Amino acid sequence: QVQLVESGGGSVQAGESLRLSCAASGIIFSKYALAWFRQAPGKERETVACISWSASDVWYADSVKDRFIISRDNAKNMVFLQMNSLKPEDTALYYCNVDHTFWPMLDPAVYSDWGQGTQVTVSS
Q1: Alpha carbons 71 and 51: distance in angstroms, whole number
Q2: Per DSSP, what are the bridge partners of residue 3?
Q3: How far, in Å, are 19, 32, 96 from residue 9 at the CA level?
């Protein structure tokens, strides 16, 4: 069973940056694709960005393309999300997850194990 621990969230002004981190354990990390998801109040959880096991492929939601960068460190079993030019609409609880079947990881409902998430709040 995978364990996921997200960190790095906070409260920032529009235009500022944050870097989220996620530590995964309980799996052979290098064999899994990884993704960041987010869920805003009153909205469904959505996929933000995905990275393949080798980091050769990445996918971004249109809403974050050119602003967010996903990366991974297989030696440390961690995935990161660099979030630049943050907007109020980026405000959400951010989660990571892993998969070795689906690419990209577009359906959050597929996953049953989640971490506690990390809150990102962007004010205008």
Answers
A1: 7
A2: 25
A3: 7, 24, 13
> How high is the pLDDT of residue 1?
87
As given in the structure block, the two tokens for residue 39 are 């869920």
C-alpha distances (whole Å) from 75 to each of 22, 31, 108 are 13, 12, 26
Please say whether the beta carbons of 124 and 15 come within 8 A: no
Q: What percent of the chain has pLDDT over 70?
A: 100
Q: Match 């990881």 to its residue by tokens.
A: 105
Q: What is the mean pLDDT of the chain?
A: 96
For strands 118-123 and 92-99, give the pairing: antiparallel
Taking CA atoms, 99 is separated from 7, 36, 57, 105, in Å, by 20, 12, 14, 7
Fill in the DSSP letter of residue 113: -
- Strand 10-13 versus strand 18-25 pairing type: unpaired
Token pair, residue 66, equals: 């050119």
Q: What is the strand order of the sheet 118-123 is part of?
A: 10-13, 118-123, 92-99, 33-39, 46-51, 58-60
